[in-house]
Every structure is written in structure tokens, then in C-alpha cells.
Amino acid sequence: MIRQSLLIAIFLLMAFTSLFAEEKKLNWVQVTEKAGWQPRDSQGELVFKDQLWIFGGWFNSYEAPPRDVWNSSDGKTWNLVTKQAPWIHSDLPMTIAFKDKMWLMGGWYNGRLEGHSAGNQVWSSVDGKQWDQATKEAEWTPRLAAALVEFKGKMWLLGGTENYYFGDDKSLKNDVWSSSDGKEWKLATADAGWSPRAYHQAAVLNGKIYVFGGGNYTPEYHATNDVWSSEDGIHWTEETAKAPWHERLWFSSVVYRDRIWVIGGWSNNPAKNKNDAWYSEDGKNWTELKSDVVWKARHEHSAFVFQDKIWLAGGHAQPLNSEVWTLDVPRDWFKESGKNMDQQSGLPKTVEKLKSGKPVKIVCFGDSVTGVYYHTGSRRAYTDMLGIALKQAVPEADLTMVNAGISGHTTVNALARIDQDVLKQQPDLVTVMFGLNDMTRVPLEQYRDNLCSIISQCHEAGAEVLLCTPNAVITTQGRPAEKLIKYCEVVREVGSEMQVPVCDNYQKLTALRDQDALAWRLMMSDEIHPNMAGHKKMAELIAESITGKIVSLADVAPPAPAIPRTKSLLEKKQPIQIIAMEPLDEMIQSAMKKIAPEAQLVVTSWKTEGKTYSQIEADAKTMIRAQKPDLVLLAIPRSAKVDSQEDFLHCSIWTMNYSLNFGTGGWDCVVFHPDVFDSSHPQPESDQLTRRLVSGQDLTLVDRKPDQTANAEEILQQWLQSQLD
Q: Does the pTM of the predicted model rise above 0.70?
């Protein structure tokens, strides 16, 4: 009996210890379901004299916005300070606490009703009841939904829109203004470099101003998830073109625990509110805070830092609400969270070596999706991107990356070459991703056994293993998605049985397709192979599986120089075989003669006039690889006809695919944007798709810069000079 009781006690103690050994989840706490003020969104908010404050806001688009002022010392009990403040532009105003005063400026009045307007008045108050007008007309144009921060002893106003419901892209601003007194404002820059936008946020951290997210709501929606920073408000640097949080408008942001936070918001791609929270120490690397208890998804809510917590109030959660929530992040939570991640990692030896700066060799073992082929520009693949991602996540890492991917291979082929291609490398970690070929000719049970054998042989050689499910595909007769799902499930089962971590590419990329079908399509080179945009995404996912950290590779540029083969031949004074679409066929000869008169060029003209996209693709298929040139110059004209967006995508991608060597290396290939030759007849949708497609192929795009007045010959010559210097 005593022995039985002792065993029970030991069991309970182990369970208790295990419970507290798990990583502590941070959950949101509801302070009140209904604050004293009427449910609303788009209100001004700030913390002043140890109290939370809200001003005005939005009830609906067909009445004037409220002009009330409320405060609270605990978030639960709210006091009406004044019902009718003197300012009227209180829908999406800019508010801040600065120099012992509360400030409200700009904003929108009267919704969609007659007499609507944006404001550029600036008001201040020391008590919320009496308000003083610092200026009736600030130097900046009337606007709403700008960002406002305190930086270097001044208030800084950034961007915004001059018209809410009735404007267009011309209403959007990307100017930056500063003021030390709210009365006189100085223009820092009329064009900050980031795209004109409203409904964005700004934050101050690390001695910099950060601007991120936002875009436009109506008449044409567009939103971003880029991040920019500046040390002076004048000169701006893009930290990332695409943060891992989804593009959004109407979100909130605070700086808390030395991190920028992005909280909630709304996107129209697809149309839905958000209830996520992300944080970053540098604006480039972001981590999502995952909570079991969180508020209902919403937009245009207030966020504060108060009493050492994040507070959230109101917003549009379908319907409007007046809830108040808090989040308390212990000061040492980030350090402890990192420790817990190390302890829970399925790759402890690799993670320890990465963090210690010891040499780490990683072999990526797979098929054509792993290898370097035309799908990703014939120069790099996700193995290379994984190395970059791991350096972002663990800057001290000393990495050697080995690509062991071969086109057409299955796990049967993998076992035949594992000694030579993998084990002889003496790797610390092997990532294993097969399946897209196995599903066509290797039975499920044999596939399972082969994966188990690969894992066992790697473990016996002292290497850790990360299994990866294949990427999502476009269903074809040979590779139906329903069949691939079964092979992916085997990967998960083998991982569980052999206690090997699994990076579930299929699940993650399928979720992306469900969320944003076009974004996913732009990651595919064909029905089964991702392009470099897809490889970057997989590298991000694999890096997260290894380190537990979310990184972004969106701003990793194509390889430089863009034309290494051409440059090498030029230096060796050897002939250069060029295939160039018109008018580049003649322009390249003229430009090269000015830069390198001794160059020996043999140019084949690629006629495109009067041809459709499909005909141009067919030319690429028959012409390029047969001739094996040294340089291919692509410039599909806007006049080329195409039947649909999918045809545009397919033909554009395959024209690039066929213009590249099948495998690694080969010749140079560069794409010229239609704007280079004709900037007066833009086609916004296809022009932007072209930019995304070329970037996705990891090729260099020669494009016309904003406000650039040079002609096509000058742009070509300037670019060529930059490559050959």
C-alpha cells in the first residue's frame, strides 16, 4: 500500500513538474466587456497623467463623429471629461502626449454626408476639458489616418490621406513633417521613399522612426506589410519589403518591452479582420505571439502601453464594441521563451552549435524542388536561402550549406546515393524532402520504409534529421493533390514514430493558397515546382522549424552581378553570343560599343512585334536552349496579346523558364520591364505582376525608376555600365 502511494506521489510530482516545465503561454485578459463610452472605432487614444484617454471616433458613415473625451485609471471605470470638445475632425485623427499636453490634429468630419472634410487644425489640452487651438491651418495639407510620433524632442507627422471615402491614390501622402510646438511645422521631406499611404503606423525604437503597413481603402484597396526606418525623418531605409504578418490597414501598434508590436487590423485580401499580435526588435525579424485567450478579430481599435502592460480598447469587431483587454508580458519572458525553445527543439545539437558559433554543415536532400534548376533562375535554390534565413535567425552561426537535390529522384534513388551525396559530407543536419516523384511510382508503404531507412542511416552517422513535406501543387492527372496528401501524411507519421521533427511545407503553403490564391500562384514556376519566391517561403519555414524564429527573406535580392558569364567573356576578350528581343537587339550593340568598344558581339534578334504571349513562349522553347547563348535579354512588349491573367502568368513564367539553362549555371538572363521603353501607357495590373514574376524567378529586372526621364538607350547603358564596372 505504501509502495503504491509512493508511486502515485512520484507520478503526480512528475506531472506537476512537467506542467511547469512547459513554456508559459501569454494570454489576453478582459478588463471589461462594456466600458462606459459608446462602442466605436477610429478614436484617438493616448496615455496622459497616469490615465487612459480616448477622443471621438466613428459610429457610422452617415453621422458626424463624436466629440467626447473619456479617461480611466484602471480601464474598467471610465469618466466622461467632456461631451462636446471644440474640435470636429475626430474620425481617424492623429493624437499624442507631448510636452505635458495632449494633442489632437487632422482627422475626418461628417462621414459620407454633405459637408465632409479632412482637417489640418492642431489642438492641445492639459485636462481634456479645455482645448487650445495651436493652429487653424498647419503647413501640411488637411488629412486623416496619418502616423504621429515623438522623436528627438519633436512631433513627427507621416503620410496619411487627404480624402477618406471620395479620394484616390493621389490623395495619399508620403511626406514627413515635424514641429516642436504644434504651431509651426517644418517639411522634412515631400517624398519619404516609402509608398504614399494611410491607415499605417509608426513607432520609435533604436534611435529610429519606423513606418510600416497601411495603404488605401477606397476607391481601390491596396495594403502593404513593408517596414521602413529613418534616423532623421528624411532618409529612409527599407528594412523588409514583406514582413511575415499579413498586409493590413486599420491596425494598432505600440512599443513595449523594447519591441515594436503590430496588433489586429483588417485586410481585403481576403476581406477579414485580424486578431494576431507580432513583435520585432529591429523591424526586419518578426515573431508572432500565440495566445490561447485573445479578443475577437477587429480593426481600428486603440492600443496603449499603461501600467507596464499592453491595453486594447474598442474597435470594429463586427459589431463595434467597447471592450478593454490587457496583455502582461513579464520582463524576462523573451529570454525564458528562448530557453524553452532550445529545450523543446527536436534538433538540440544543431541549435546548440548554431548558437555557439561552431561550424555547422547542413545537407538538403531531395529531388528537383531541392536542386538548382531553371525554376529558381539556375543559380540558387532553397538550400542557399535557408543559409541566409539561419544567419538572420542566429547571426553568430557558422554555416556550410550543401545541396543534394537531383531532378526526377525518389526515395529509392535517395537510398542508392545517400552514402556519396550525404553521409560522406559528415553533416550535422540533413533536411529530407522527397515525395513529388515517389507519388508517381513508389507505393506508400515502400515510401514509408525508405524514409525510415534514410533517417536511420543519418542518425547512425551522427546527423540530426528534419523531415519536410513536399510543397503544395496545382493538381494534374499525374500528380493529383488528393494523392499527394496521403504521401504528406506518411511523412508526418514517420516523424512521429521516429521522433524526428517535421516541417510541414504542404500544410503551410496550402494555408497560404487558401488565404491568398494569387500570392501562392506567384510562388510557382509550374504545376509542381516553386520558383524562388516559393523557395524563399520554404526556407523561412524550415528555418523556423530549426530555430523557432520567424524570419523574412522577402528583401533578398537576385544574385549580383546579373551577367557574370558576359562579364567573364568580355574580360577574356572572347565572343559573346546574345539573343535579344527587339528593340534590345540593336540597343545592346550600341550600348556595348560605348562601354567596351573591343567587345565581340554575335547578336540574334528575337522578333516580338505582332506576336502573342503564347507565340513568344513558343519561341523561347525552340530557340534558347538549342543555341546555348551567353546572354538572353527579355523585353515582352505591352502590345503582346493574352487571353487571361492565368495565361499571362503561365506564358510569362515559361518564357523565362525556357530562357534559362535547365540546370545550374549556363548563361545570363535579364528581363527589361515595359516601362523602360514606354512609360506613358502603363498597365498597372500586368506591370506589377511582371515585377513580382521576375523577382520570383530570381532574375534581375531592369526597370524605370520613379520620375526617371532617361530614354531606353540611356537606361540600358547605365545599367550595363553598373554591371561591368
A: no
